[in-house]
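INSTRUCTION: Work out how this chain folds

Fields: amino acid sequence; protein backbone structure tokens

Chain under study, with its fold:
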Amino acid sequence: MSQLQYFLALVAGGLCTAGLALSFATPLETGLLLKAFLAVGAFSLIRLWVPLGLWLDGAMAVLGAVAVLTALGVYVPAPAFFWMALISAWLFAWLFVERLSRALAPATRDNAGLGLLIPIVFGVTILVVWEVVTRGANVPQVILPPPSMIWARITSSVPTLLADFQQTFLKAVLIGYALGCGLGFVVAILIDRSPFFKSGLLPLGNFVSALPIVGVAPIMVMWFGFDWQSKAAVVVIMTFFPMLVNTVAGLNAASSIERDLMRTYAASYWQTLLKLRLPAAAPFIFNALKINSTLALIGAIVAEFFGTPIVGMGFRISTEVGRMNVDMVWAEIAVAAVAGSLFYGVITLIERGVTFWHPSVRGA
């Protein structure tokens, strides 16, 4: 084991040992699963002398998560060994991810499926810790509701969430994203042939990108109305400049030797653009597309704070906060986060298919 793995195993086992000793002060039949986890965790200190497989760490993380979740409400207030068990379960999950990532590093291609375990374990661990801390420490729901409460709100409000998703993402985000990125790309191609426009439009684009959303959104509402068109306009403003700058930089990525070779072949400007400069600019363009995938969603949601029909993610968030329905606010945040992540992932998959020749993709 590496020094970090040794340290994690030592701390996790030590906390389980201390927690097991403290648990003797409670009746034996109370919280049996939690005490069993502490006992097994204390016994796992044997790994410091006897090599054990990494899957034991995964099993310990799962056992610890189930143990602390089932012990919620058994101890009021939660004793010290309960929190020791939670920290130990988190450390076992960390140790499992650390060892798995090191084991997969030499052969990432051959173990792509196992590699998905790393973000899954990381995400599930965050949810378990969130659930246990909010319920075990009796955190007021107005401050931070537990994930179980948020999930219950999601399942009971599917029609409302779906209508908000359609209004914000399928209309404002996608249309504004397509227009903003498309305009940025076309303008970059046009100014590439003119040093005058390049010197004049790039500073102007920088100025527009620096405009605050809270100042632009009310103006767009006055210009385009309260429906999704004004939110799409805000998205266009937010996504235009990153695409413009990245495309201009990408068009200049081709080396002078490669351009001289195209001139030797008597290639025209458009032939050089299509066969050399645009392929060289593809990684830059996709970087802009990935950046804009998150900016577009943020811009649309914030723009809905300043005027919208009675539907939309931003409208729902601002309204439910005023009503102190924090679980609904977190439900909208969860839907937005999942939608944004999937949108980013789709663009990344398209990038891998288009720029398969690039070293960053070939080595992934």
